[in-house]
Amino acid sequence: MSLLLCFLTPSALSLLLLCVVGRAMGLDGLQVTGCSRWGAPGNRSLFQDGDVIIGGLFSLHYIPSAVEQDFTKLPHYKPCTGLDLQSLKYMYAMAFAVEEINRNSSLLPGLKLGYRILDSCGRYPWALQSALSLVGGDAHICSWHLFSGQVVPLLIGAASSTTAMMLSRLLRPLSVPLISFLASCPCLSDRSKFPNFFRTIPSDVYQAQAMAQLAIRLQWTWVGAVHANNDYGRLAIQEEIQGKGVCLEFIEPVHRQTIVRDAKRAALTIQAATARVILAFTWYTDIKKVFLELAKRNVTDRQFLASEAWSTSDDLLQDHTVSKVASGVLGVAIRSSAIPGFENYLRHLHLTYHPDDEFLREFWEKEFGCSLVDKSSHSPSSPSASLPLCSGMESLEGVQHPFVDTSQLRVAYNVYLAVYAAAHALHSLLSLSHLNNFNSFFNILCFQLMQHLNKVNVITSHGEMFYFQGADFPPKYDLVNWQKSPEGTLKLVLIGRVDGFDLHLNESAIQWSTGSNQVPVSVCSARCPPGTRVANRKGEPVCCFDCFPCADGEISNTTGSLHCERCPVEFWSNADRTACIPRQLDFLSFNETLGITLTTAAVSGAIVTTAVLVVFLYYRQTPLVRANNSELSFLLLLSLKLCFLCSLVFIGRPSVWSCRFQQAAFGISFVLCVSCLLVKTIVVLAVFRSARPGAEGLMKWFGPGQQRGSICFFTCIQVIICAIWLSLSPPMPQRDLGFRGSKVTVECAMESVVGFSLVLGYIGLLACTCLLLAFLARKLPDNFNEAKLITFSMLIFCAVWVAFVPAYVSSPGKYVVAVEIFAILASSYGLLLCIFAPKCFIILLRPEKNTKKHLMAR
Hints:
Belongs to the G-protein coupled receptor 3 family. The structure is a single chain. The protein contains 24 helices and 27 strands. The chain has 858 residues and is α/β, with parallel strands linked by helices. It folds into 4 domains: 45-66 and 79-201 and 340-369 and 403-432 and 442-463, 3-Layer(aba) Sandwich (Rossmann fold); 204-337 and 475-509, Response regulator (Rossmann fold, 3-Layer(aba) Sandwich), CATH 3.40.50.2300; 532-582, no CATH class; 593-696 and 703-732 and 742-856, Rhopdopsin 7-helix transmembrane proteins (Up-down Bundle). The strands form 8 sheets. Strands 10-9-11-12-13-16-17-18 form an 8-stranded mixed beta sheet, sandwiched between helices. It has a 6-stranded mixed beta sheet with strand order 1-5-2-6-7-8, with helices on both faces. Helix 9 (284-296) packs across helix 11 (320-326) and helix 19 (656-690) packs antiparallel against helix 20. The longest helix has 35 residues, at 656-690. The protein is rod-shaped.
C-alpha cells in the first residue's frame, strides 16, 4: 500500500475507498466530486455488451518524452497522446478471445460474454481511476452515480507489477479478481497479501533461475551483471547468486533518472572486466544506452544474457549501432504461441465494422495519414484537422505492418489465456450455481469467482495444461538468439525452450558474439581436470580457485571435483589420479635387481664353498687338513653350502610350502653349522686339557663318534622346535595391506612370533656358547689351533644377527625378506672366509707351511 500512498494523499485515498465501499453496499445516489485533479486520459473505451462483462485495462497511450514530467506531484495535466501499437494488439487479443468464446457452444452456453476496456496510459493514478470506474459501473468516477447497471466482476490488466500491487489491494475489499498478463514480480505470489491476484506470465523467480541454469549449462561461472535499480533487477541478481554456482565479478545498477551517467559507468566496468558474459536485467531503453556506450568504446566481444524485458525488443533489433555490440545475445523470452485466426482478425479490422472504436480510429488516422471525418467536424486544435479525408479503400489486408504480425505472439497470448481463464472460471461457477439472473449471480460472484479461478485446469489449443499455482502460471519460456541478417540488422531466432525446470537448448543453432562456433569461455578459474580437486582461494568467490593434484591413493574422475576419493584397500590410484587400479603384487623376485644381486651372492657363496670342499678333499692327506679334524671340516663346509642355498628359498612369490620350508631350512642349516663349530671348539679345548698330567682319559669322551653324536643332538633340538612351530602355527603367505602404496606386499606372515624367536634364540645360544669357548681357547699353543679363527668368525656371526633384529623389525614390505637373506649371506661368508680362507691360503700358496713340524711349532 506504500506505493499507492506515494501517489494519493490520505484524503484522496479515503475518497476512493468510500466510493468502492459505497457501491458495494448499494448506496444509490452517491456522487463523488473532486476527482478531476487526476486528469484522466480521456473517456474513450472499447465496449461490447454481454450478460457478463469482464474489464480490461491496457496502457494504450503513453506520454511522449517531449512532455514527460514528474508524476510524484499532483495534479497531472500533461496529455497522454502517444499510441502504443503493442498494447493495442493486446487489447484486440482480448476482444478476439471474447468473440471466440461466444462462438464456442461448449463454453458458457446460453451466456454472452462482454468486455469493457479502458486505457491507463501506463500511470498509476489513471490505472486506479480506470479500475474503480470498471468495478463501479460508470466510466466517470469523478461524477458517477450508483445505478442498477451491470458491473465488472473480474479485471484483466496491470501491465506492471507496481500497478498490479496497487490494483490488487484496492480491489481486495470487493473480492474482485485481477488477472495480469505482464506483472511478474515474485512478491505478487504472496496469497496472504494478494489473494485476488492471478497472472498468466511466470514469476521473475523462474526467469532468474532459467538464466542461471543457462549460464551453468554453458559453463559460464564468472559473469558480470547490469540491472535496473529496482525490485525487478535486484531480485533477479539475488536469485542469480544464491547457490546457483554462478559468481558475479561486478554488479552495475542503472536508474532511469540517471541513465546517461549510469550507462557510461557500466560500459567502463564491462570494458575493464575479465568476465566475458554479461547478464542484463533492465528495460530495453536502459540497456540500449549501455550498448551505445559500448559501441563508442568498440567493445564488441562480450556475450550478453538478456531478460524477457528486452530480449525481444524490435527497437534494439533494428538499430544498426546496437547490432555491432549485441550480436549473439542469448535471451529468455515470454513463451511465444500462435493464436489461430488472430492475424485474419487483425487484418479485417475496419471502422466500417467497428464505427465506435475510437482506438482503431486513432490508429487508422496515424498509419494511413488520413481523417475518417470531414475537417469541419474536427476542432481546430485537433491533430486530425489537417489530415485529408480517407478514401475508404484503406485496408490492413496485404499490408506488412508490425501491428498485424502474429509470428511472435507473447504478451498477446498471455492476454488470450487470461480471457480463457476467466471464461472457464465463470463457466464452472455458473454450472454450480444454476443461476440465470445476473443480479442474483453477482451477489455470490464476489465470494466464489476467485475460488473457481484457483481450480481452473484446462488443456489449451496447443495441448498444454493450463492452471494456476496459487497466483502463478506454470513457468514456460522461449530461449532466443540475436543473429545478424543480410541487411545488417539483427533477427530473433528460437534456439530452445524452458518448461518448468527443464531446459532444452539447441547449441548448434546459436550464433555467438565472437563469430565462432565455440561457446565463449567466461570463468574465473578453469575447471579442475580429473585427477585434481578444487581448493578455494581465501577471501575470493567460490568460482576462483586453484587445482591441487589428488594425493597418492586418491582419485577424482570428474571435472571440477571438490574433493578426492580414497581408493579401496586393494586398489591404488593410477599415475593420473583418475582411476583406482588393482595394486600390484610386490615380493622379492628373481627378476629385479635386488633379487638378482642376492641370488648371485648366494650362488657365489655356494660355489666358493664347493671349491673349498674340493680343495680339502684333494689335500685331505696333508697335515693341515688332517690336523683340523677333516670330518668336521667337511661337515661344516656342507652346512655352509646349505646356508648359502637356503637363502634362495626366500626369493620368489611366497606360497604355503615355501613359507614353511624357508624358515625350517634356515634354522636347521645354521644350527648344523654352529654345532660343527661348537664341537670343533670343544675338541680343541679337550686336546689341550688332555695333555696335562692326570687328564689322559679326557679325550675318550670326545672321540669321532661323540663329535658326530653331539652335532646330531644339537641339530635335532632345532628340528623338534621347527616341527612343533610349523605344525601349530606355521608362517602363511599374506598380503600386507597396511602399507598404503601402489603395490601390496605378499609376505610370509609370522603367525607365531614365539616359534620364530625360539628358532633364532636357539641359534644365538649355540653361537654365544661357541664364542665363549673359542675365546677361552684362543691363546692355546701350536699353529694348528683354529680357536682364533672360530673366535673371529663367531664375532662376525653374532654381530650380524644382533644387527639383524632391529633391521628386520623396521624394514617395510619385501625388504624384510632382503634383510633376512642379507643376514644369512653375511654370516655365512663370515664363517667361510674367517675359517677356511687362511687354510686355503697355506694349502695353495704356502705349501711349505703345510707340514707337521710347522703345525706343531709354538
